[in-house]
Every structure is written in structure tokens, then in C-alpha cells.
């Protein structure tokens, strides 16, 4: 149970834990590479620890001490057939990217996860991987876990994805690295491109032309050092808190500002928020900077189209922020929210209305009435880390006390969230 009270001020200089998407990929690519990969700034959250445990079960030696990880890669075919099921916990990224990797392996493996994973759609990766030649089965013809995969020889495909999803794109590209010929993925909008950037850092030739990404089969990865920047999706909760609590300002150091992830910065600025990007640099092909954030009076906005994949995980906390803006905020084209750890349209609406917020769900998003005073409430994360943290931020702007049940879900992506919040809040 997490308890939050109305905040008078937020102030300080902080760092947020490592980027979750980049941490997963660093472990995966390190395990498939030849030689040692040393990772610093790794996110020791539950999801990324699930990725480590899956590769350990396939015979890869991985040492992890806080945010330092050493992976002893044995090359692409150095994995061994797992004796037990591979448990991905709560992690969609782990199961979908692993499906692509296992599709290339000459053995049988079973992937499964928790109750939330059991409800998330898998045919979006199973379908194209089957087209490439992999044998994959699961409940409802491969839509749901457990997924039983027997990999082997694959052929490249030219795949037009109906959704902008980095997990779909990554699963296909990873399988494509060992398929015959060229594999391409075309998306309706560009999704986060950490796979493309990190594959390049590991020595792979990846071709990106607009929304099309291609790789040729038969390439090998070489172990290397990876420095993981702070996760902008975690920083987003603190940015929103500063925007909502008067007299606040915060410096968040060393945050990843990959343009496929910075929709939150664009939205905060479009709403009238003051956010400065300082000390910009490139680390392992990924842009990184310090963010200086200042409390601001916000206006409502419209969030839609190509912006959606660039801030999809931030929508719960953007909805919270919008309750305190002047005017209405409309979020559309965000149907993908329904297939995250929870249905995030339904869970944002059910929890945020407990504070007295006025939020109306729509088929592909929600409409939030700004200028609504919030009162402390009894909230449930419903097992979704981002719902837990977004509602904690709402609690900072609400009168009285807010309690968040099932707050341990926050450890999936932001271990230490409650302590950090307590440290910077007056
Ligand atoms: O890993 P998981 O459970 O899917 O996590 C989420 C999150 O909120 O942390 C989504 F629920 O992030 C996804 C993100 O939404 C992480 C991700 C990635 O690392 O490739 C890509 C996005 O999902 P998708 O479906 O658009 O590919």
C-alpha cells in the first residue's frame, strides 16, 4: 500500500532508473552476441529481471549487481533448449521479442507469464513469425499464452504491420537476422526504434527508410559496452507532478530523449509547460540530455495520430495532468491502450474518477475536463505499474490522503519510486 498526500512543492536534482526498453534489449542482444557485453545503468525492475532469468534458463551466464550487468554471450546459436517453461512475469516486451528469437532456434521452448500476460494478444507476433516458417502454438490458435515454439529455418518476409508496435517490429527483425534473404517491416507510424539503434551498435546492418526497416539474414552480433540512459517514461511521472504542484522545479539528469519516445515533451510544451532540454549528447546511438522542468499553468490539448506511439505509455499520467489544465484534453487514435498491462482506457477512467476527475472513455482514447479539483481517494493499481504511479501523481495534487493498493506493481519499471517521490516532495 502506498500513501500519498497533497504536496506543497517538489524540488531537487535527480536521476530516474534506466530505460526499460533499452535494458531488455541490452540483455537479449548481449546473450546472442559473441563475447562479453557489459551493461551499466541497467533497470533492475521486475520486467528486465524476467528477461535475465529467461536467458539464464537457456544456459547464458549473466551476473547482475544493481544496475551493472555482465552477459557472457555465446553467439546466436549458443542458447540451449530450456528444461522448464520460460516465465516472462508481467513483461510484454520479454515475451514478444523472445518469440522472435526462439523462432530461429533449433529447439522447443514454452513462454508464459502472469495473469495480465495471459490476456494480452500474441497473434500480432505469432502470425508473421509463422509466415516466416516458425511453428508456434498457443491458446486460441496462438493468440494467447502459453506459447510453445519450435524454431528452425526461416525465410525473410516483407511485412506490413497493422499496428505501430516496437514489439512486433523487433520480433520480426530479430527473426529476420537468421532468415534467408531480406526481412522488412513497414509500420503505419514509426514506433520506438531502440532495436534498430542497438542492433547497429552491436555491428548489424539495419536499413531504415521512413516507416520501413530491413535486415538481411545471416548476421552476427559482437559483444560490447552499453550505457543505458534514464527512462523518459519514468521521468514522465515526475514531469507531470512538477507541472501540477505550484512552486515546483526539478532537474532530471541523463534521460533518454530518443525522438520516438519524446511525445511527452511535445505535449507538455504544447500545453504551455516550461521544460528545457540541456546538455544533449549521444550515447550508444541514443540521444541523452538533462531535463529542467518548471511548474506551469497548462492548457488542454488534442493528442492523436503519429504522436500516439511516441507517448503511448505516458497517456495515464498525461490524463492526470490534463485534469488540472485549463480546458478540455482529447486523446484519440490510442486503441492500443486497451491491450497493455490492463485496458488503460478503462483503468484510467475507473481510478481517476475516484478523485472526482471528469474523464469520459471513447473507443480509441478519452476526453478529460480540465480545471477539476481532485480529492484524495482509495485507489487500486490493478496490477499495472503505470496506473499505480499515475494515480500517485494525482494524489500529490488532491486534497487529503490517497492510498494505492497493489502498489508493488510499480517495481516492474520504477523500483524506488515511492522513496524518490518522498525525497523531493514537501
Ligand atoms: O513490456 P510491456 O509490458 O509491453 O510494457 C509497456 C509499458 O507500459 O511499460 C506496455 F505496456 O511498454 C511497451 C510499449 O508500450 C514497451 C515496448 C518495447 O520496449 O518495445 C513497446 C511498446 O509496446 P508496443 O506494443 O507498442 O510494441
Could you describe the 3D structure shown?
This protein has two domains: 2-18 and 229-424, UDP-n-acetylglucosamine1-carboxyvinyl-transferase, Chain; 20-227, Alpha-beta prism (UDP-n-acetylglucosamine1-carboxyvinyl-transferase, Chain). The chain is built from 13 helices and 23 strands. The protein has helices spanning 20-32, 46-56, 92-102, 123-132, 139-142, 166-176, 194-201, 232-244, 263-270, 315-322, 344-352, 385-397, 417-424, and strands at 2-5, 11-15, 34-40, 61-65, 68-74, 86-87, 108-112, 135-138, 144-150, 158-160, 182-186, 206-209, 212-216, 225-227, 249-256, 274-283, 286-294, 302-303, 328-331, 358-362, 365-369, 378-380, 401-405. Bound molecules: ligand SPQ. Ligand SPQ is lined by residues 20-21, 47, 91-93, 165-167, 170, 191-192, 312-313, 340-341, 386, 413.
Quick tags:
2 domains; alpha/beta; 426 residues; 13 helices; 4-stranded mixed beta sheet; 23 strands; 30% helix; binds ligand SPQ; UDP-n-acetylglucosamine1-carboxyvinyl-transferase, Chain
Helix/strand layout:
Elements: E1 2-5, E2 11-15, H1 20-32, E3 34-40, H2 46-56, E4 61-65, E5 68-74, E6 86-87, H3 92-102, E7 108-112, H4 123-132, E8 135-138, H5 139-142, E9 144-150, E10 158-160, H6 166-176, E11 182-186, H7 194-201, E12 206-209, E13 212-216, E14 225-227, H8 232-244, E15 249-256, H9 263-270, E16 274-283, E17 286-294, E18 302-303, H10 315-322, E19 328-331, H11 344-352, E20 358-362, E21 365-369, E22 378-380, H12 385-397, E23 401-405, H13 417-424
Parallel strand pairs: 2-15, 3-14, 6-7, 10-11, 18-19, 22-23
Antiparallel strand pairs: 1-23, 3-5, 4-5, 7-9, 8-9, 11-13, 12-13, 15-17, 16-17, 19-21, 20-21
Helix pairs in contact: 1-2, 1-7, 3-6, 4-6, 8-10, 8-12, 10-11, 10-12
